[in-house]
Amino acid sequence: MIFAKAPVPGQVKTRLIPALGEEGAATLAGKMLVDTCREAVAAQVGPVELCLSGKLSHVPAGVEVSDQGEGDLGQRLARAAERVIGGGEAAIFIGTDCPGLDSRRLRSATSELERHDAVMHPTFDGGYALLGLRQYDPSIFSGIEWSTPTVAAATVARFNALGWSLHVGDMLLDVDEPADLEAAGISLKA
Protein backbone atom coordinates (compact mmCIF):
# COMPACT_ATOMS: atom_id res chain seq x y z
CA MET A 1 0.00 0.00 0.00
CA ILE A 2 1.51 3.25 -1.17
CA PHE A 3 0.35 6.35 0.71
CA ALA A 4 0.73 9.55 -1.29
CA LYS A 5 -0.70 12.94 -2.15
CA ALA A 6 -1.51 13.84 -5.73
CA PRO A 7 1.37 15.99 -7.09
CA VAL A 8 -0.40 19.35 -7.00
CA PRO A 9 1.86 22.45 -7.01
CA GLY A 10 1.87 24.17 -3.64
CA GLN A 11 0.30 21.16 -1.89
CA VAL A 12 3.07 18.52 -1.99
CA LYS A 13 6.67 18.52 -0.85
CA THR A 14 6.12 22.01 0.57
CA ARG A 15 9.41 21.93 2.51
CA LEU A 16 11.20 21.56 -0.85
CA ILE A 17 9.54 24.65 -2.38
CA PRO A 18 12.37 27.00 -1.27
CA ALA A 19 14.82 24.91 -3.33
CA LEU A 20 12.60 23.78 -6.22
CA GLY A 21 9.63 26.15 -6.38
CA GLU A 22 6.03 24.92 -6.29
CA GLU A 23 6.12 23.43 -9.80
CA GLY A 24 9.50 21.78 -9.27
CA ALA A 25 8.44 20.25 -5.95
CA ALA A 26 5.24 18.92 -7.55
CA THR A 27 7.17 17.56 -10.54
CA LEU A 28 9.58 15.76 -8.20
CA ALA A 29 6.66 14.40 -6.14
CA GLY A 30 5.04 13.08 -9.33
CA LYS A 31 8.26 11.43 -10.48
CA MET A 32 8.82 9.81 -7.08
CA LEU A 33 5.21 8.57 -7.04
CA VAL A 34 5.61 6.91 -10.46
CA ASP A 35 9.02 5.46 -9.50
CA THR A 36 7.59 4.04 -6.26
CA CYS A 37 4.65 2.47 -8.07
CA ARG A 38 7.02 0.94 -10.62
CA GLU A 39 9.24 -0.56 -7.89
CA ALA A 40 6.23 -1.90 -5.97
CA VAL A 41 4.82 -3.60 -9.08
CA ALA A 42 8.28 -4.96 -10.00
CA ALA A 43 8.65 -6.51 -6.52
CA GLN A 44 5.82 -8.93 -7.36
CA VAL A 45 4.91 -9.46 -3.71
CA GLY A 46 1.17 -8.89 -4.04
CA PRO A 47 -1.39 -6.39 -5.27
CA VAL A 48 -0.25 -2.77 -5.29
CA GLU A 49 -2.70 -0.22 -3.97
CA LEU A 50 -2.13 3.53 -4.14
CA CYS A 51 -3.98 5.14 -1.23
CA LEU A 52 -4.23 8.62 -2.62
CA SER A 53 -5.15 12.00 -1.27
CA GLY A 54 -6.43 13.90 -4.30
CA LYS A 55 -6.80 12.80 -7.90
CA LEU A 56 -4.36 11.57 -10.56
CA SER A 57 -4.83 12.07 -14.29
CA HIS A 58 -2.91 8.87 -15.01
CA VAL A 59 -2.54 5.76 -12.84
CA PRO A 60 0.58 3.66 -13.35
CA ALA A 61 -0.02 0.18 -14.80
CA GLY A 62 -0.61 -2.58 -12.27
CA VAL A 63 -1.76 -0.20 -9.55
CA GLU A 64 -5.23 0.06 -8.02
CA VAL A 65 -6.21 3.42 -6.52
CA SER A 66 -8.19 4.06 -3.35
CA ASP A 67 -9.00 7.23 -1.46
CA GLN A 68 -7.22 7.83 1.85
CA GLY A 69 -10.29 9.45 3.35
CA GLU A 70 -10.43 11.95 6.18
CA GLY A 71 -8.41 12.32 9.36
CA ASP A 72 -4.79 12.59 10.31
CA LEU A 73 -2.20 10.22 8.87
CA GLY A 74 -2.64 7.80 11.77
CA GLN A 75 -6.39 7.55 11.23
CA ARG A 76 -5.93 6.99 7.50
CA LEU A 77 -3.24 4.33 8.01
CA ALA A 78 -5.33 2.62 10.69
CA ARG A 79 -8.37 2.34 8.39
CA ALA A 80 -6.29 0.85 5.60
CA ALA A 81 -4.48 -1.57 7.94
CA GLU A 82 -7.72 -2.73 9.54
CA ARG A 83 -9.31 -3.28 6.12
CA VAL A 84 -6.41 -5.24 4.61
CA ILE A 85 -5.42 -7.24 7.69
CA GLY A 86 -9.07 -7.82 8.56
CA GLY A 87 -9.38 -9.37 5.09
CA GLY A 88 -6.72 -11.93 5.96
CA GLU A 89 -3.72 -10.30 4.26
CA ALA A 90 -0.51 -8.79 5.62
CA ALA A 91 0.02 -5.12 4.79
CA ILE A 92 3.14 -3.21 3.82
CA PHE A 93 2.84 0.57 3.90
CA ILE A 94 5.27 2.81 2.06
CA GLY A 95 5.42 6.44 1.02
CA THR A 96 6.82 7.85 -2.17
CA ASP A 97 9.72 9.95 -0.91
CA CYS A 98 12.38 7.27 -0.36
CA PRO A 99 14.43 6.53 -3.49
CA GLY A 100 16.28 3.70 -1.70
CA LEU A 101 13.10 1.72 -1.15
CA ASP A 102 13.38 -0.46 -4.23
CA SER A 103 11.85 -3.77 -5.33
CA ARG A 104 14.67 -5.74 -3.67
CA ARG A 105 13.97 -4.15 -0.28
CA LEU A 106 10.22 -4.69 -0.75
CA ARG A 107 10.79 -8.40 -1.44
CA SER A 108 13.08 -8.65 1.59
CA ALA A 109 10.52 -6.92 3.83
CA THR A 110 7.84 -9.31 2.62
CA SER A 111 10.08 -12.26 3.42
CA GLU A 112 10.84 -10.89 6.91
CA LEU A 113 7.12 -10.35 7.50
CA GLU A 114 6.62 -14.11 7.16
CA ARG A 115 8.81 -14.53 10.28
CA HIS A 116 7.92 -11.42 12.28
CA ASP A 117 4.76 -9.63 13.36
CA ALA A 118 6.06 -6.34 11.97
CA VAL A 119 8.82 -4.98 9.73
CA MET A 120 10.16 -1.43 9.61
CA HIS A 121 12.68 0.48 7.54
CA PRO A 122 13.40 3.58 9.64
CA THR A 123 14.55 6.85 8.12
CA PHE A 124 17.38 9.12 9.17
CA ASP A 125 14.91 11.82 10.19
CA GLY A 126 13.21 9.61 12.80
CA GLY A 127 10.29 8.36 10.74
CA TYR A 128 9.92 5.23 8.69
CA ALA A 129 9.86 4.55 4.95
CA LEU A 130 8.21 1.14 5.26
CA LEU A 131 5.99 -0.46 7.85
CA GLY A 132 4.80 -4.04 7.40
CA LEU A 133 2.18 -5.66 9.62
CA ARG A 134 0.76 -9.17 9.90
CA GLN A 135 -1.76 -8.16 12.53
CA TYR A 136 -3.58 -5.02 13.50
CA ASP A 137 -3.97 -3.13 16.74
CA PRO A 138 -5.34 0.44 16.82
CA SER A 139 -2.61 1.57 19.23
CA ILE A 140 0.00 1.33 16.46
CA PHE A 141 -1.23 4.50 14.76
CA SER A 142 -3.01 6.46 17.52
CA GLY A 143 -1.41 9.32 19.39
CA ILE A 144 1.69 9.43 17.16
CA GLU A 145 3.15 12.89 16.54
CA TRP A 146 3.42 12.55 12.75
CA SER A 147 6.19 14.34 10.83
CA THR A 148 8.42 14.49 13.89
CA PRO A 149 11.70 12.72 14.74
CA THR A 150 9.83 10.49 17.24
CA VAL A 151 7.61 8.53 14.83
CA ALA A 152 9.74 5.39 14.48
CA ALA A 153 10.68 5.24 18.17
CA ALA A 154 7.06 5.69 19.25
CA THR A 155 5.96 2.97 16.83
CA VAL A 156 8.65 0.57 18.08
CA ALA A 157 7.48 1.27 21.65
CA ARG A 158 3.93 0.28 20.61
CA PHE A 159 5.21 -3.02 19.19
CA ASN A 160 7.16 -3.69 22.39
CA ALA A 161 4.06 -2.99 24.50
CA LEU A 162 2.06 -5.43 22.37
CA GLY A 163 4.80 -8.07 22.62
CA TRP A 164 5.13 -8.23 18.82
CA SER A 165 8.30 -9.37 17.08
CA LEU A 166 9.85 -6.69 14.89
CA HIS A 167 12.46 -6.85 12.15
CA VAL A 168 14.22 -3.53 11.63
CA GLY A 169 15.65 -3.17 8.13
CA ASP A 170 18.06 -0.66 6.66
CA MET A 171 18.04 2.97 7.74
CA LEU A 172 16.97 4.94 4.67
CA LEU A 173 16.93 8.53 3.46
CA ASP A 174 13.63 10.13 2.63
CA VAL A 175 13.47 13.35 0.64
CA ASP A 176 11.69 16.03 2.66
CA GLU A 177 14.12 18.93 3.07
CA PRO A 178 16.35 20.76 0.57
CA ALA A 179 19.49 19.13 2.06
CA ASP A 180 17.97 15.70 1.30
CA LEU A 181 18.03 16.44 -2.43
CA GLU A 182 21.81 16.41 -2.67
CA ALA A 183 22.12 13.47 -0.26
CA ALA A 184 19.76 11.49 -2.52
CA GLY A 185 21.63 12.52 -5.66
CA ILE A 186 18.71 14.57 -7.01
CA SER A 187 19.84 17.43 -9.22
CA LEU A 188 18.41 20.91 -8.74
CA LYS A 189 18.98 21.65 -12.42
CA ALA A 190 16.10 21.55 -14.86
Topology of this protein?
Elements: E1 2-5, H1 17-43, E2 48-53, E3 63-67, H2 73-86, E4 91-94, H3 103-113, E5 118-122, E6 128-133, H4 151-162, E7 166-168, H5 178-183
Parallel strand pairs: 1-2, 2-3, 5-7
Antiparallel strand pairs: 4-6, 5-6
List keywords for this structure.
single chain, 190 residues, alpha/beta, Spore Coat Polysaccharide Biosynthesis Protein SpsA, Chain A, 4-stranded mixed sheet, 37% helix, 17% strand, globular
CATH topology: Spore Coat Polysaccharide Biosynthesis Protein SpsA, Chain A
Counting H and I runs of at least 4 residues, what is the number of helices? 5
Q: Note poorly predicted spans.
A: none
Number of structurally distinct domains:
1
What general form does the structure show? globular
Gross CATH architecture: Alpha-Beta Complex
* Percent of residues in beta strands: 15-25%
Q: Radius of gyration, Cα only, in angstroms? A: 16 Å
